Structures are given as C-alpha cells and as structure tokens.
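Schema walk-through. Below, the input block comes first and the output block second. Nothing else is stored per chain. Lengths vary across the set, and this one has 301 residues.
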Amino acid sequence: MKQLTGKTAIITGANSGIGLEAAKVFAEQGAQIIMAVRDTEKGKAARDVILNNVKNALVTVMKLDLADLASVRAFADNFKNQHDSLDLLINNAGVMTPPYSKTKDGFELQFGSNHLGHFALTGLLLPLLKNTPESRVVSLSSLAHKGATIYFDNLDGAKGYKPMKFYSQSKLANLLFAQELDKRFKQNGLNSLSLACHPGISATNLFKFGKRDAPKLMKTLMHNFLQPPEMGALPTVYAATDSRLTGGEYIGPDGKGQRKGYPTLDTPHASAGDEAVSQKLWEVSEQLTGVKFEFNKTATQ
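--- output ---
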C-alpha cells in the first residue's frame, strides 16, 4: 500500500461499516480524512473511534445528504472553499432495500442516493480531481449488480417497485458509472483513475429490517457466516491504493463466489458490459442531477 501521508480523502458514509473501516486504514497511513456523513453526531462519534486508534489522525466531519442535491452542492462548495486538491473520493455510502420512498428531489431513494447523489458529487468535485496528480475515484458496487437492469422507463419506481430489484439497479449503476468515468478520464488525457469494488457479503448495518436493526440471533449468524466490516473494506483500500491498478478495474474478495476473502481483480457480470446502456445512464444522470462533467474546464453548476 502506497503511503498516504499528505493525501486528502473523502469517504461518504464513513461513520459506520466499510466506510469507517476504510477511514481507519487511511488514517493509519497518514491521510487527511473527510467523513462525509448525513448524521454529523454519528460522524463525530466515529471520528472519536478513529482518534482513539490513531492519536494524531487528521479527521474532519462534514455534512452530506446524498438524497438531497442541494446538500451535495453545499458539501462540494464547502470542500472546494477549504481545499485545492483531492486525492481520493470514495463513493461508499448506500441504502439497501428500504420501503418505497423518494429523495428530496423526487428520485427513487436507492437510485437517487446510491447512484445519482454520488454522480453529482463526483462531477462537482471534478475540478479538484483533475488538478491532483494520480487522483482516484472508487465507487462501491455489489454482487447484487449481477443480472440487474437499468429501468430507464421506471427510474422513479412509479410503475412498480421491488426493493431488491431497485437496489440491484443502483449497484449496477455504480459499476457502470465507475467504468464510464475511467474511459472519459483516459479519452481526455487525464491521469486520474476511476475504479469499482465490492465487499463480498459483509455484516454491516446495511442489513436492517425496515428502520429496525436486525434481531440479535440474525446478527450472530451474520457475523459467523459473513465477512466482518474490516475484511469487507479491504477491496476499497486495495482499489484506492494499489499502484499496479491502471483504472477501470473491479475489485472484490478472492473466496468462493467472491463472497469472502482478500481483495483481487474480479470480473463484472455481463450486465455491466453494455456500452449503449452505460452512455445512456451517463446522459440521463446529467439531465436528472443538472451536473455536467467538464473534463477540460471547471465543472458547471
């Protein structure tokens, strides 16, 4: 792992699970961490956990609600006012299989938070990524992308909603975005990299029952059979730091079915290989968010 001293990293959803475990590793390696979180009180508690492990860690908590484009813009503006470079953007935060609901801007919650919020955030931070040598964007996908579909005629779920199908759609969108972003970096002669990763099946607080935590017995079973969050975070760390990666890769665990294990190169499902879908998703995402990626000049708002 390359030394991260002097590097700046934004991690969305860094207050728990994989995001928090990745933040711990980056802090140990000397990076300046920005914990981009919806609940700043939980973020401050998580920051204290990191500071207990790494006394001199540079950790800042900043408010970011990916289900609200105004919050995404405010976060990006605040960050750009305080920083002139960005080495790592970890698009980690996610919501999984909630009851049907919408974001502040009227998007289906999972597609809006998991994909569109991160799409907008990346576009708004693009000027800093371009200005930072060898910057990286890492977007978290999931095994759930396998066989998924982008429902262009029903993105808001108004014609019918199934929680797992829409979660899978959002995770396929994360992977398509990561791949397309890397292509566009290369087409425009930029040395920034975009990569995707997935944690296998990890016991994080994504596994909830509605608004309630999983029952204790279920939690015990999860921790016995699923990856602990610190293992689930290793593909993120690998994607963010391994010097052999050249952009566009998909990183996941090396165990059976890519469910558990140590990070290695994984192969996306064929559903992530349709160039026409990838380009259409990009165009639709720009239209819905109002954020247009400008690779040769400052991103418009």
